[in-house]
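May I ask for an example protein's residues together with how it folds?

___
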Amino acid sequence: MQSGTSASRRLVNIGNRCSDDTCAAFCMHNSSAAVDGEESAELCQHAACDAEFNRCWCTGDTVRRMDGACLGAPRPGSLALPSCQASHSALFFLASAYGPEIRKEQIAVGNISRSLSVLVWRAVAAALNTTEVLVSDLQLARQEAMAGMSGGGLITLDLAFAFCAEPEVAELDPAKFEVAYRTESQRYTIFDRRGTVRLVNLRDIRLPSAGTEAPAVPTRLPDGGARLRGQQGASDQGPLLVGIMCIVGVVMVFGILAAAWSLWRRRHRLKVAAEEEARREAEEEGEGESGNHAPKTFRRRLATPGALTGVMGV
């Protein structure tokens, strides 16, 4: 018996074109062997072939896992979740290829697909290790397209959202949250081997100090795209920038002082040399006025020991 992955891959690749039937068969085969304990054959009715990208995906409130199974959003059982207040906000950097879940026309207007929303919900639930999660204020905005990429190439995105959970989240480690979120995200076809997910900012919005950061707001660009405008991370970068400016200022002051000291020493040496030369010339002129009209060179020779004997021929 062939493995599920190879058999399903063969079904999808018949004629190099996918179809709704082959995508559904792929989903059914892998959902039957699901390890999450939540998938069922009913979700495979959402499996479909996207003709534009010639790729299977899961429509509606489902997302397609790497093995082809369609998964829905977590099913929280807490009655308090619909009214819970967001405790944290997160901003992620995404790099992904265009596909059924991330389309150009959606990015242009800042829309987020239902499949991507489900992925975010599942990733947050995995990062918090609970299904009692509520994700809100999902916002997706485009950054600059990667150089040399166009059409179906990679694009860079900002993804912002808020969330709460039951029981209430007391404190989160950003590094652990990012690893768990990224690990879960990469289980789905939205982020294939070329895609990546990185945490930019995670903050507790219940803390008063967190109010210094403005919320992420997508703004329209002249080309019709969107970009997140906000101050995420501004309060963290402020002290760093001030410190760098102080260091640069101190280095500049020391540089100016060193240059001034070097210039002063050079001028002082030139002044001393000029004064010494003037003194010697004054002495020589004084000797000439007293009646000694011998050439300077001859007078210097006479001043040396034995010079007179040589002159007289003795």
